Every structure is written in C-alpha cells, then in structure tokens.
Amino acid sequence: MDKDNITNTYYDKGRYIKTESKNRFTFKNIVILVLIISLVGGASLGAGYGAIKYINDKPKEKIAENEEMKKANNTSLTNISNESNDLSIVDIVDKVGPSVVAITSKVKVSDWFEREYTKQGQGSGVIFNISNDSIMILTNSHVVNNAEDLVVTLADNVKVPATVAGQDNKTDLAVVKIDKSDVDKNAFDKIKAIEFGDSDSLKAGEPAIAIGNPLGYNNTVTVGVISAVDREIRLTNKNMKLIQTDAAINPGNSGGALVNSEGKLIGINTIKISSTKVEGMGFSIPINEAKPIVSELLKKGYVTRPYLGILGRDVDKNTSELYEIPIGVVVLDVLKNGAADIAGIKKGDVIIGFNDEKIVSMEQLSELISNSKVNERAKITIVRNGKEKKELTVKLTNKGIEEK
Q1: Percent helix, strand and coil across the chain, each rounded to 5?
Q2: Any catalytic annotation for residue 172?
C-alpha cells in the first residue's frame, strides 16, 4: 500500500483539482466478460431444462405438497422480516438527514513569499446533542484545525456561526458548538440529534450508508457495506483502527455520518485511499472509540494523555554498529520540567526498555506510553555514554493542551 495515496476527505476549495478517471475496460475484458456470460447463460439454460423436466415428471400430489411447504416458508419469512428494525434507504435519509450539517472553515496561510491569504474548505458534521442553550456537532479535527472562522450550514441552507469547543488531533475528532440563540425557530425545528449505534457489534457485509457534503453538495447519500472492521491505517505518524466501507467517501465527507440499516451512527467518515489501482476504500472512526474522546472534549476541550516529554529518534542496527550504541531510541531533547526531565533522563541517553518491553523504535515507545495512564509510574531502562546502564522510574505526566 506504499503507492496508495491516503488522504483525508476535507474539501479544500482553493486546492481541489478535478481529475478524469481512466477507462481501463479493454477488449480483453470484453472477451472475458462475454465468455463468462456465455458460460453462466449455458449453465442456467441447462439447469432450467433439467428443472422443468423434473417438475413435469413429478406426481401431482407431490407438487401440491411442495406448494403447501412454500406457503409455510413464506409465512415464516414474513414474520422474520416484520421483526427486523432495518429501514429503507429513504427512511434512513429522512431520519439522519436533519442531523448532518456542512462546516465551512477559513484559515489564514502564507505562500512562498510570506504573503498571507485566506483559504476556504468544507467538511461535514453530525449533530449529537441539543441542550437549552447550545447545539453540539461532532466532526474531524482536520476540518476545523487552525480555523479563524467557522460557519455551519443547517437544513434549508441556513448558515450560522460556530466555534470549536474542543479537538483532539491524535484521534482526528473535534466538537463544534453553535449557540441556540443564533438559530431561528424554523431552522431549529428541522434539526435533531442523531442516535448512536454500536460499532463494536459490526460485521463485514452489513449495510453502510454515508451521508455528508462531498464537493460542497449538501446531504449527499452513498450506500455500500462494511468491508472490514478494526482496519489499522497509518496516518500522519499514528496508527488508527477504523471501519472500512465501500460506500463512496469523497472530499467534503470528512466528519460526516456513517450509519447502519437502523439509521444509527456507527462511524465518523475521515479518510479514503485513492489510487489508480484502488476504488471504494473509505474509512470511518468507530463511534464507540469516539464516545470517550467526545466526553472529554466536552468537559475540558482537550484529551488528557500520559506524556514522557522527550524528542527521540530510532537507533536501528546500522546506526547501532556505526556509533557503537545499543538499538533503541536515542534522546535528542528533553522537555524542561517534563516527566523525563524530573526522572533524570538526559539528552544523548538511549532508551532500551519500558517496563518489561524491549524498545526498538520511537513508534513502539509512543504506543506503550499511550496505553499507560496519567500519573502511572513506569520503569525506563537507558544506556548512558554508550555503556552505563540505568533503570529510572518515571511518573508519566499529563500531556498539556498545547500538545493536543
């Protein structure tokens, strides 16, 4: 997957370029398709003839018996269908549509000549809570990151100002707030909070419906299935376990809803893999993973995480042999008064162990720290000056809001 282009689905109006899709349907494909159709058709005709002959040869009383069995089976299937909570696609759109919004952001950027200009982009969001004084919207962090101005578009193209209530870049989640006083009664009556589903119970092959604002087209609906669950994708130096779907997710869908056949929210659409070799690979953040993050964002505006407070680099086998230092993570810098500084870790130390784990990379070390708790004590094994081995106890501190 190295050659695939993994991108978020935020629609950058200033940079988006429409590209033509390549038609790869060749003469060879046509010949193969014709052969397949011919083979299938021949098999079907043969099977059909055999079935007709078999039925004609059966005694009439046997046919009558089978008709009774069909009636019984049909009754049973009807009962099962009536007990299902599945909705039609139209019903799902009617149910979910009022909860999906468009989010337009304006960000100031500089060009090569340090001239400032405003870049506008658009994503999607999902209303998940309506209180007496505010409307809360769940979206992606990259949709609102560094935005100086936010506008949310509700039903009937009603636009209202919004602010970021909290965001977490690591999980690519953010909460956007609208003051209820900014929404007129007619518009307010047409919106509602979405109902959460259970992403842990998802199975590959189940229906999946994506609703968002691709390329600025409000409340666009695409339909597919859950292609896979717990699909690990590496994005901007972090691994994320996401829901994979073949429901089309395009630029502008970021932050939009992925819902199940009951119209319940199961994921927040975030990225797609685009390549000349790949089609239909979109990914969503599971809603069960998002819930605790959202809860913390509502309380504090950021997520509390354990933090070691170092800048490190991998020491691989080649580097180890060249500089005669052990494989691990070399400390390039130490944050003043951070957890590592307080524990006595110094610039130039090589971290080779975290509790009972042998450390071979910064990615591994970061993952182990992330799986720990704030204020938890950890045993860090280091090598100093290439030979002196030490074990230090570190109390992992809270990662500050400026590092969110």
Answers
A1: 30, 35, 30
A2: yes
